[in-house]
Amino acid sequence: MVAPLQRVLVCSPRTAGWSLPDQVAKWRELGFLHAPEFTEAQRQHENLCRELRATGAEILELATAPDLTLDAAYTHDASLATDFGLILMRPGKPNRMPEARRHGAFVETMGVPTLGEIVAPGTAEAGDILWLDSKTLLIGRGYRTNLAGIDQMRALLAPKGVQVLPAALPHGQGPAVCLHLMSLISLLDERTALVDLPWLAVETIELLQAHRYRLIEIDAAERDSMACNVLALGNHRLLAIEENTRTNASLRDHGFDVRTFHGSELCINGGGGPTCLTRPLLRGSLATGGAETR
User: Fold this and answer.
1) DSSP H helical segments within 1-144, as ranges?
2) Is the pTM here over 0.90, yes or no?
């Protein structure tokens, strides 16, 4: 999750229907803070993509489809890239269920196989999933990812030598408000994690410490603007939301190269930061500079 980003799937507001009145009319039921302003959201997405390209990443745009909703812009959640193929999620938010098949069909055209998919009664969203290392997957158990989904992930990955560990998530503001594991932890490099420490379970903190992660805390005043949602670009480069000035300054003080884009409409309004807006498909190897699919 922290090696140099080489290929990434995105879904722009245009593709996700943010310019369509019938889609925009559903903003309340989807949990947006206000009706999205398409022109500004699209501009902010283009700035996001510009920052990604500047680091050498190839950007792929998901194809438009009639069953995509406003939430499709947050491409991270619907699939998980592994060294063995794509795993299609079954999101806990019902309107998002079609997205996984769209991801699978899209990357199949590039020769990326589907390793498996989460099926009922399981639910899983990739925003709840962190690779602590190449053989350890941490999955948040919350309102969007249930125990059945975690069990199915374990069944898919155990034969590949991957250990799947559950992490309890707090109630937060309840099931209507999305609280992913990646809302509370962003991995910055192979030994550093940005955390919202008061909201993490003790066992999760102890697990990070056991894996020798150094923990950097966000500024608590920037919690609601998703200060903890930071995308690792590789080589100590990060992509963050411009509005979180204090947390970003702290990251720079810790030696990171922090690139930013304004996210008022694209991120804060819809509840999805840089990690949510991107589905990494290919990263370079930390050790050798080679390629791997995660």
Assistant:
1) 21-24, 38-54, 97-108
2) yes
